[in-house]
Amino acid sequence: MLTTFETKSNRVKGLSFHSKRPWILASLHSGVIQLWDYRMGTLIDKFDEHEGPVRGVHFHNSQPLFVSGGDDYKIKIWNYKTCRCLFTLLGHLDYIRSVHFHHEHPWIVSASDDQTIRVWNWQSRTCISILTGHNHYVMCASFHLKEDLIVSASLDQTVRVWDISALKKKTASPGDDMLRLSQMNTDLFSGVDAVIKYVLEGHDRGVNWAAFHPNLSLIVSGADDWQVKLWRMNDTKAWEVDTLRGHMNNVSCVMFHANQDIIVSNSEDKSIRVWDATKRTGIQTFRREHDRFWILAAHPEMNLLAAGHDSGMIVFKLERERPAFAVSGDSLFYTKNRFLRFYEFSSQKDSQVIPIRRPGSTSLNQSPRTLSYSPSENAVLICSNTDGGSYELYVIPKDNISRGDSVPDAKRGNGGSAVFVARNRFAVLDRSSNQVLVKNLKNEVVKKGLLPIPTDAIFYAGTGNLLCRTDDRVYIFDLQQRLVLGDLETPFIKYTIWSNDMEYVALLGKHAIIIASKKLVHQCTLHETIRVKSGAWDENGVLIYTTLNHIKYCLPNGDSGIIRTHDVPIYITKVTGNSIFCLDRDGKNKIIIIDATEYMFKLSLLKKRYEHVMSMIRNSQLCGQSMIAYLQQKGFPEVALHFVRDEKIRFNLALESGNIQIAVASAKEIDEKDHWYRLGVEALRQGNTGIMEYAYQRTKNFERLSFLYLITGNMDKLTKMLKIAEVKNDIMGQFHNALYLGDVHERLKILENAGHLSLTYLTASVHGLEDVVERLAGDFEENAPSLPEGKHPSLLIPPSPVMCGGDWPLLRVMRGIFEGGLDAAGKGGEEEEDGADGNWGEEMDMADVNGLENGDVATILKDGEVGEEEDEEEVGWDLEDLELPPEIETPRASSNTCTSLFVTPSPGMPISQIWIQKSSLAGEHAAAGNFDTAMRLLNRQLGIHNFAPLKSLFIDLHTGSYSYLRAFSSMPVLSLAIERGWSESNNPNARGPPVLVCNFSELEERLKNGYRATTAGKLAEALRLFTGILHKIPLIVVESRREVDEVKELIIIVKEYVLGLRMELKRREMNNDSVRQQELAAYFTHLNLQLAHQRLALISAMNVCFKAKNLATAGNFARRLLESNPANENHAKIARQVLQASERNNTDASQLNYDYRNPFVVCGATYFPIYKGQKYTTCPYCSSRFVPAQEGKLCSVCDLAVVSADTSGLLSSPSQVRR
Questions:
Q1: For residue 454, which of 438, 471, 439, 467 has the smallest C-alpha distance?
Q2: What is the b/e burial string over 637-676, where b = at least 16 CB atoms within 10 angstroms of the residue's CB?
Q3: Which of 573, 642, 715, 819 has the fewest CB atoms lying closer than 10 Å?
């Protein structure tokens, strides 16, 4: 059985596959109907309107409908698109056991415990026939796929076949149904439109299920007599053919396989059995430990089955459907229907070569699994799972490929894997001895080699080399030198695909693809949510691979994308240009034409083939948000700019690429305040004062305009801004402008008009304006404010600007490859001719800008912002001489040369971003300050959900990886990254990883301190130290693989101490429960501690049990203590005395939940033993064991991870994620 999908839920009583979509319905005993996507493994929807268990459910084969029937006597018709129940059919008087749609007519057949079968028209929503005859519960009823028949099974020990051909005439339209209602009373039980054709008797107990064969005149049934019976029928009679025995309890469901001559049944004996329908013998049995099976369902078109049991359901298939194949140049060898076939890619010629399996071998999963081909010898190696793993070697005559009329002798042997490693040599893996046997074409062993690591499969890795697979890594083994050339930690690998030049290998797992070099140096990793099926390299070094429903690509740097979708899985054999050659599950060769433009464009960008990029931009239809986002992400916003017509997106891209000219044009089209503001910010960054002024005027941002004129030294315009503020009655604006101008008289005037006489008086006094002081002194009389003594006032005048007028100087850089060369391709003829030169803001249409500027001023005056009572001269905002800086003349060059012009340099990437991109280690992400990604990494790698204990460590890592300097008092503090392994000889452009304040040597010191505290009996202090180590390890970074192993070993050591200390502290708190105290002390002695601490635990347990009169148990601890040769003679003396007392009276006063003879581990939450053979679950981080009830809860040992979470494993070294 190959399990495709599995769910955990209440008992599943009904199942139904959708005919087209990867969906399955499961009706539960709790009354809920679940709709699952078994391909993605996700729950799509739930329907819960039934009251009580739902025992039957069925999809319609063409409409978006399904039907359900339950213990509430109701049949409900649902629309899964609208997620609601359309209507309910009422009529049954007891539980409804099954419901089934007709494949052509708008009919539903239902079986019920009211001993009837009803046929309904779901369009007219009426019952059109009631089939009576059974005298006990009717357990199931279903339509025949081709004939007008219904088969039913009942607890009256019979299977009945009903002829419903008369229904067609009586149900031609819904009107006929309504007409028949008046006749319902007369022929309700007469059976005139549905008659019993056969009654099949033979079962000794009630029959639970019966089903038709999809093509033959056969019926299969399963019953409470534990038997499966096969029946045959013709036009006149039906009879029993055979009985299949093997189930050890009631048979719940049975059916024929749609595509093979087999029968599948399941039972309350917790098994699924597969039977040969021809030989009527059992083929295979699949069992569950605790769950009874209740229902089976078969996919109408695919080789998929589903079974419902007490705690959920499984979707599975009986055999692998991937054809074994091997590609060599222009040739493809593959297996199909017990034959080896040959396909030539260039001519698309397909021919049969030789038969590869003796007829009559019907065992499941014995089909060829892998195929290896030697082109020089024209030899084929075919491996299968037969006899626990075997291979067959065929040497094919050269002229046999075209004829396929002879059967060469096959040389056979046992082995887990077999693959050619040279022209006339092949390697066979002997799993039992972990050896590789090198054999010649005579099947003779010529060399043996012991593999250094336990290996379960071998793959080709070049002449004389093998790529060996273990559970968590792969390595390349040189058969001649017997050396490991490289290794890489990976998830479980299923297939390997080498590039055409053998420089790169793609390692395909179930949900991951790892690309590595020929020495297994890691390049990139891709993770997929659905299963990866196959892959092949094209001639450009791009990996094209397939998942269950997509064809995708992967570039050498790890960038990936979707090429197209497909309905059924395919297996790529070769990629040439835009053509993908592939095999489907039926072994048919197909050619799929794809559009390679997207990934070829990205590959050209990656390899810096800019001429090719420019050609593709001009000639192809590349577009879409994903392409724009990709170009932005890769630092090519100026290229993305030429794919976009939406002005808002163009504006954003123009700002990102620094193209202020296009940003201005887009801002004019959008004409929104927010965009003008952002344009002003970008102009300020670039130092383009003209556009800055223009943007501030468009947004009427007078405060920013005033400050701009101040820092550029434009006093004339600043004076006019003062007048504008006065016209707008903006008192603060007036005061600020007067302050900027250093105009004391104007400030006095503003303060006095605002009623701030005290401030006016002080200002006049400070600046020595005696006439104003004398005039105001009379108003204050004797309460005039006084000036502070000892102070020397000065006139507040802003300093003179360094640059007066004009734009700020910009860095002179060379124009890039895309700047200017793409403008003509970007917007075609829509832009001005000047835009074709691609200059970045120097050649803005100044006349237009000035016109808009003056028009904007006029708009302000027309808006009524100026008081109408003022005279026109006072109101007018005279800005006729407010000219933008003159256009800077830039030299023009021919189109085929690079020009030199002023552009702003693009900002570099922050060091924290570099650290994040280069690392998959949580500690380095925390040091970079990106706590969110650090937490996500820890969650994915170790299942950590509780980050509260790690908060202070995150902060320490971040602050410790930077040094902080203060340059000037008025400047913010500068943070400087501290890089690990930095030296003066390093490349200044290569940034190293961050320095981490947590290191492995510190943990070793803490471990020693924890040992000392434990020895001294300071258990709370020891627990704090050991727990601190557990909390720091996820953020530790080490360099070598040896240190990685040491870190993993440290986790196990510390986990044992944390668990033991928690138990011991809890024991000391329990004063009133002697039995529990003894149990905890006993469990403590079975933890993996240092010998000295093991002795202390044994002494403690011995004393506790001896005081409680449990002499037999105390004697056991004394014996173990003496076997450890204690150095303290006093301890040894006491142990001998206890042992003597135990031997005199070998009894226990109280019964303990403790059996030292049976190996066990201690549950980290309940502190009870989990004996060998009992179920348990594990913490993915500290590997503490727990009882199954703790699944999904926070680990009480490490206090970080969730028990039984799905994780990828600890990453603590760059060597584990080498790129």
A1: 471
A2: bbbbbbbbeebebbbbbbbbbbbbbbbbbbbbeeeeeebb
A3: 715
Q: Which helix (H) or strand (E) holds 487?
A: strand 483-489
Cα Dmax for the chain: 132
Query: In degrees rounded to 5, what are phi and psi of residue 835?
Result: -65, -20
Is the pLDDT at 488 greater than 80? The verdict is yes
Tokens in use for 61?
A: 């084969």
Taking residue 207's Cβ as centre, other Cβ atoms within 10 Å add up to 32
| C-alpha span between 1056 and 1037 (Å, rounded) | 23
**Angle at which helices 597-606 and 610-619 cross, to 10°:** 150
Distance CA 931, CA 927 (A): 8
Contact 736, 703 (CB under 8 A): yes
Contact 1178, 1186 (CB under 8 A): yes
Residue type present at position 653: L
How many alpha carbons lie under 13 Å from residue 862 in its C-beta half-sphere? Answer: 6
Total Cβ atoms within 10 A of residue 283: 17
The neighbouring-strand residues paired with 963 are 976
pLDDT band at residue 1200 under the 50/70/90 scheme: very high
Q: Distance of alpha carbon 483 from its chain centroid, rounded?
A: 36
Query: What's 992's DSSP letter?
Result: P
833 pLDDT exceeds 60? no
State the pLDDT at residue 856.
44
Q: What are 692-745's pLDDT values in tens digits?
A: 888 888 888 888 888 888 888 888 888 888 888 888 888 888 888 888 888 888
pLDDT in tens, 76-121: 999 998 889 999 999 999 999 999 999 888 999 999 999 999 999 9
Q: Is the pLDDT of residue 885 over 70?
A: no
pTM: 0.56
pLDDT tens digits, 167-189: 876 765 444 454 455 444 444 44
Task: Name the strands in the sheet holding 54-59, side by side, starting at the edge strand that comes first in the sequence.
Answer: 54-59, 65-70, 74-79, 84-90
| C-alpha radius of gyration, the chain, whole number | 42
Dist CA 640 CA 792 (whole Å): 60
Structure tokens at 872: 């026109």
Question: 594 CB contacts (<8 Å, ≥6 apart)?
Answer: 551, 563, 564, 578, 579, 580
Place of tokens 């075209």: 402
pLDDT band for 867, please (50, 70, 90 cuts): very low
CA 1080 to centroid of chain Cα atoms: 42
3-state secondary structure of 547: strand
Strands 12-17 and 349-355: unpaired
- 320: its two tokens: 């692998």
- Describe the crossing of helices 625-633 and 647-657 by its angle, rounded to 10 degrees: 10
Q: Give 1174-1210 as a 3 state SS string.
A: CCCEECCCCCCEECHHHCCCECCCCCCEECCCCCCCC
The band of 541, judged by pLDDT with boundaries at 50, 70 and 90, is confident
Strand-pair category, 411-414 with 96-101:
unpaired
Q: Beta 411-414 vs 457-460: how paired, if at all?
A: unpaired
For residue 405, what pLDDT is reported?
53
Best CA proximity match to 991, nearest among 938, 928, 1044, 1038 = 928
- The continuous run of DSSP H or E covering 245 comes out as strand 238-245
Structure-token pair, residue 869: 């009572």
- Report which secondary-structure segment, H or E, holds 813: strand 812-814
pLDDT of residue 899: 38
- Euclidean distance between CA atoms 283 and 1047, whole angstroms: 48
DSSP, collapsed to helix, strand or coil, labels residue 227 as strand
Q: Is 200 helix (H, G, I), strand (E, B) or coil?
A: strand
Beta strands (DSSP E) in 339-472 are 339-344, 349-355, 370-374, 379-384, 390-395, 411-414, 418-422, 425-430, 435-440, 445-450, 457-460, 465-469
Q: Which two tokens stand for residue 187?
A: 């022929």
Q: List pLDDT tens digits, range 388-437.
A: 788 888 888 776 554 545 566 778 888 878 899 888 889 998 888 888 88
